Amino acid sequence: MKNTRSKELFERAQKSLVGGVNSPVRAFNSVGGDPLFIDRAEGIHIFDVDGNEYIDLVGSYGPMILGHAHPKVKQAVKEAVDKSFTYGATTLAEVEMGEMIQEAFPQIDKVRFVNSGTEAVISAIRLARAATDKKKIIKFAGCYHGHSDALLVAAGSGLATLGIPSSKGVPEEAVNNTLISNYNDLESVQKWVDMYPNEIAGIFIEPVAGNMGVIEPEMDFMKGLRKLCDDNGILLVIDEVMTGFRKKFGGAQDHFGIAADITCMGKVIGGGMPVGAYAAKAELMDQVAPLGGMYQAGTLSGSPISMACGLATLKELKNQDYDRADQLGKRVKAKLEAAADKAGIKVQVNQFGLMVNPFFTETPVRDFETAQTSDQAMFSKFFWAVAEAGLYIPPSQFEAWFLPIVLTDEEVEEIERRIEKAFELMK
Ligand code: HOZ
Q1: Closest Cα to residue 138, out of 239, 220, 218?
Q2: Catalytic residue among 48, 56, 185, 239
Q3: Does 144 participate in catalysis according to the annotation?
Q4: 3-25 pLDDT tens trace
Q5: What is the CATH number of domain 4-69+321-426?
């Protein structure tokens, strides 16, 4: 695989950008070698600056569910750009987006758009505290909810990849009220509720973890969390930044039959432009300014270009066959298992709809501890073999792969061939 131009650009990038990247997950620290610099992408294909073509299974870490540069989305963005870029005033597209979210999430009355998943979760923490007049929050080891101080402990994503247990620069005071529990372990949550009755404002969870690899919740665990919240006046905050519109037109919470008190969104709802959102029943959202005393604002919130991109994406998703999407994910999982088996490599493949990823371990992966049993050296080898075979996957064991929903049967067959080839290269 030729990488002369990527190498040159990386050397140049390191002189002006921290580590040559603008987000640590883009660095190749855990797989070794130099990051690939991307030139362009179209549909399911992505091309690096050396002219190598890959099938893109990163999808910009989630937003590109329709593949790249979808013609209808591109057209909507062009039309928005032609009018201007931002007005600092409300537009029709924001209202339409709000209505679209209401339609997709029956438990939501009102929504506030922000610019990222991180911002959505920061705001949800504030709202949970404002609404309950309590300070403590619970998060799960290995879950990642963006880079805000209060949730940057025992976090997945880049922190897990780089082996950073908790970020420097986060003062003790900022995390004094953050309690850590284990995913799929209700007792580890009950323990905190017993220890701090009447002090916990919210429980924050990814309904399917996607930042310690992909991990599905056990139904008893999710149902138990809902009950624990109801019995103790705690708000259940479900972070659907990764899962929103991924498994169905709506949230994973609807798929599991669990309703959040506050829902956070991002990624897909922007279709590739920066959008986040938090949303809830009116009694909660009406506590947000200008109706209530919880303040949160943003110059570019609900940006007309981002809204146009998000709206066109969601309109297109409404016509997609999500049952078929799940079958696509299952086919990729089955191929990874079969090809690994043929190559004599132990693998556990977790999959939720279009989210997939392999762990190189014999241990079934159900939480952060078991995720960490994956053989990192094997993952690095796999990453480069897969790149050589023409698949672009995240350069980290702990990031979910995001398959595009638009894959044709022939394209899935091509992915299967490339997986097969990758495992052959690993021999
Ligand atoms: N938020 C993404 C989930 N792990 C990763 C993208 C990034 O941090 O750059």
Answers
A1: 239
A2: 239
A3: yes
A4: 999 999 999 999 999 999 999 99
A5: 3.90.1150.10
